[in-house]
Amino acid sequence: MPKMPNPVIVVPGIIATYLRDEYPLPPESVWEVMDYSKQYERASLHPDNLRFEAIEPARVMPGQLYEIAYKELIEELRHNLRTRPDQPVPVYPFGYDWRQPLAATSTQLGDFIAEVISRTLLLRHYDGDAAYKKNPRVDIVAHSMGGLVVAGYLATAGKSHRIGSVVSLATPFQGSYEAVIKVTTGTANLGTSPPSSREREAARLTPALYYLLPGFKGALTVPPNSTLPASLFDPSVWQPSVTDTIAQFIQLRGLTPSNAKPQAAALFSAMLSSAKKFRDLTNSLSLKACGLEEDDWLCVVGVDSTTRTQLGVSVSGGKPDFDFKSSDRMNEWGKMPPEKAELTGDGTVPFRGAVPSFLPKAKLVCISPDDFGYWELQDRVTTKLAGFHGILPNMNMLHRLIVAFLTSRKDKHGNIWGRRAPGVTAADWAPPLAGLEDKT
After folding, report:
1. Which of its termini does the chain have fewer beta carbons within 10 Å around, N or C?
2. Does residue 145 lie within any of the structural domains?
């Protein structure tokens, strides 16, 4: 009997897990992705302890995943990974508190992996599979920030991890400018709700957002002869209004309001430092050191959508100020030279922000909005609302591609494809699955 497919865990992106306050009976929802009356005050974190909420008593916990983005993906995996109807392959959603530092979420993922394996071994067809019992593993399908959570888990666990294969979809391994915009203005392609001052205030005290800051080479342009550092992880390049808002929040909710300004500066610096430490960790990830091969990771990158691909900072009145120019949103996909073609993305994550340090570009599989099929018109409508990045997990072709990768079974219709990253030749392209049509 062939070895059973590994159970699968789907790890969503930022803001894609509902949040509920379990202190009231019955529990009350405080964050729903499509709910325009999000309770920002109840979801805001306490400046004296970012593990907990600013308004206590409370106990805000993760709930379900955003069904529009992930339900179809999960159902397709559950249906197509199995070889027999009476032998289901478990596919578990991993809901997590997306506000929290990714290091903590990575640890929670490790605990969840152990739980999923234990539950899977209670199924008779897995208990009877000697090969699986000897070396139980899970496969991971991660979208957006979820891929960073997985990379952090692997970098920390090393060879003690229990992952077989990974699929990452549009993950900002090197960051997205939308995180900068969300913190600075409250608007960004990270969600579906209209911007508000309440959202901006909550964002500035959301540690996870800082883990998404762009950190690739040339991510931030500083004025010539400026003493400003060209790093978004340095607090000195940020406009003072960010720490001013945090200080105001400390005055409102903090335990020592008289010390608001220095406490705000220290808190902001600590969040940036923690995010930079995690980015350094994921950038140092070696698949080989974890006992994995490059072909164990399918990295899907969204392209051919107008995306913010660069950002400059100016100095006004002796203070830094981000220069959000509309001309920095571009889509040069397909242009030459290859460096120019990299000025694209999925509408949220720029191509350069999506390239992981632990995989060569020859392994990347690029997809575009044109890969939505004719009958996916509803997906196209939803794309206008949530953006290509947000609805990318709904793509039917991508479902087939993921199943082919996780099972090593060729798509029976030969109907999977992808595109090469800029600068990668047809001869050099080496995606981690056979039978992939090159639509470059």
Report:
1. N
2. yes
Kind plus residue range of the DSSP H or E element containing 20:
strand 17-21
What are the φ/ψ torsions at residue 135 (nearest 5 degrees)? -140, 70
Q: How much helix, strand and coil, in percent to the nearest 5, is found in the chain?
A: 40, 15, 45
Has residue 296 been placed in a domain? yes
Domain extent, residue 203, equals: 8-438
The backbone torsions φ and ψ at residue 434, rounded to the nearest 5 degrees and listed phi first, read: -85, 160
- Whether 3 maps to a domain, the answer reads no
> How big is the chain by its Cα radius of gyration, in Å?
22
Q: Is 26 within a domain? A: yes
Evaluate if pTM is beyond 0.85: yes
Of 320, 180, 323, nearest in space to 237 by CA: 320
Domain count, the chain: 1
Residues 189, 195, 200, 205: what is their CA dihedral angle, to the nearest 10 degrees?
-60
Spatial CB neighbours of 141, under 8 Å, sequence gap ≥ 6: 8, 9, 10, 11, 73, 77, 167, 169, 402
DSSP run (H or E) holding 315 = strand 312-316
What are the DSSP calls for 381-420, one per residue? HHHHHHHHHHHGGG-HHHHHHHHHHHH-PPPTT---EEBP
Q: Cβ distance 6 to 92 under 8 Å?
A: no
Would you write out the chain's pLDDT as a tens digit for each of its 440 residues? 568 999 999 999 999 999 999 999 999 999 987 766 678 889 999 999 999 999 999 999 999 999 888 999 999 999 999 989 999 999 999 999 999 999 999 999 999 999 999 999 999 999 999 999 999 999 999 999 999 999 999 999 999 999 999 999 999 999 999 999 999 975 544 444 444 567 778 899 999 999 999 999 999 999 998 889 999 999 999 999 999 999 999 999 999 999 999 999 999 999 999 999 999 999 999 999 999 999 999 999 999 999 999 999 999 888 999 999 999 999 999 999 999 999 999 999 999 999 999 999 999 999 999 888 755 645 554 555 457 899 899 999 999 999 999 998 776 667 899 999 999 999 999 999 988 999 99
User: Crossing angle for the helix pair 241-253 and 260-283, nearest 10 degrees?
Assistant: 120
